[in-house]
Amino acid sequence: MVWSVLVPAAVGSVAAMGICLWWVPGGEKVPTPIRNTRLYQAVHHPPVPVSSPLVLPSAPVPAAPSLPVSSAHDPIATREALNLPSFAPLVHQVIPAVVNISVSRGSPPTDDEPSTQPKTPAARKVVPIPAPHRRHRRQKHHTVRPADDDLTGAGSGFVVDASGIIVTNRHVIGHASRIMVSLSDGRSLKARSLGEDPMTDIAVIKVDSPTPLPSVTWGDSRQVEIGDWILVAGNPFGFGSSVTAGIVSAVGRDLGSGALDDFMQLDAPINPGNSGGPAFNLQGQVVAMNAAIASPSDGSVGIGFGIPSEIVAPVVESIRKTGHVEHGWLGVTLNDASAPMWVEDVDPHGAAWQGGLRKKDAILAIGDVPVHDARTVLRSVAAAHPGTVFNFTIRREGKEMTLPVTLGKRPVADF
């Protein structure tokens, strides 16, 4: 009778002690034979955390590709294995033709006596709208400024001919007494100006090198579409040989700086010092030249502007041949606040007056092309050479007529 009571009690006590050892901290010290039992393993099975997704994926997510051991330290193999895009091949192709430009003003130092004066920044000049040629719808004002470096007098440029022909912005070298060009190979050469065009803010300089220089070619900016990739190179804040990438945000931007305004808007970071640098397409062709940024703080906010190659290339070619550029001129004030646009004023000594245009004439077309805004007319006139004949279709007192107008030469004062 006694044993029938004591034996079950003893067994129960032992079992209770074992269960306590399983659950209390330090239970991992339980003897191996006990830890191997099914009961112990069932109680101590490691918990699996579960986090239910808010939205279940519609398809299984592919696992990231594993890299071969041999490519673990090979950047190219790593990039290819992960299918990551890279601008490195494009950079290697074009960066040797991108140069850094520094300028000084005042009395030029001699070769044996380097200048001890700090570099004076390039003068900021916003080219005014040529008066009295334009008056149209009021536009919003933006903080737009040249992308040059006022602190160091630094800018950018690019070689378009192996003989040393370099393209940059006029505001980069304006009124400079000394222009120095730093090449990608580390050399620094003096440059001389071949000419400039105030209307388009384009300048051409030349360096003399004993060996041919790497050069780049022009692309067709008319083929560029919004959303295309773009690579920008230059000398931001004096940090030479820098590149940034982005897309074309917009085309045909009018910044109010001149009749030929037709800027390409880029979201690639452009900072002071990038002025005059190139913007490349993915084929390594120059499709724009960096010229301005929109920023309240002198730094990049993702809104930069480049002059399209369709404008830059002909101007550069003209400067190389003649040292200057001539633009067509009408001598009228156009008002496109209502349709059709009309002539608000005419310069009595201008080409428009001589061709028969008068106040209150409604402008309907140039040649066979209908026109609806002053900007289209003024851009077409400014892009043409003096002496070009434009056939204006107008309406005067209810009657339509065509007037052949021979363009004049734009006066220097209009710049």
Task: Characterise this structure.
With 415 residues, the chain is α+β, with helices and mostly antiparallel strands. Helices cover 19% and strands 29% of the residues. It contains nine helices and 22 strands. The protein has helices at 2-23, 32-35, 38-43, 75-82, 88-94, 170-173, 309-322, 351-355, 374-383; strands at 98-104, 134-135, 144-146, 154-161, 165-169, 178-182, 188-197, 202-207, 229-234, 242-253, 263-266, 278-280, 286-294, 304-308, 328-329, 332-335, 342-346, 362-366, 369-370, 389-396, 399-406, 408-409. The strands form five sheets. A six-stranded antiparallel beta barrel has the order 1-4-5-8-7-6. A six-stranded antiparallel β-barrel has the order 9-10-11-14-13-12. It has a four-stranded antiparallel sheet with strand order 19-18-20-21. A hairpin with a 5-residue loop joins strand 12 and strand 13. The longest helix has 22 residues, at 2-23. Mean pLDDT is 78; it is low at 21-28, 47-58 and 108-142. Residues 132-144 have a biased composition (Basic residues). It comes from Bombella pollinis. The chain crosses the membrane at residues 6-25. Keywords: Hydrolase, Membrane, Protease, Transmembrane, Transmembrane helix. Residues 105-150 are annotated as: Disordered.
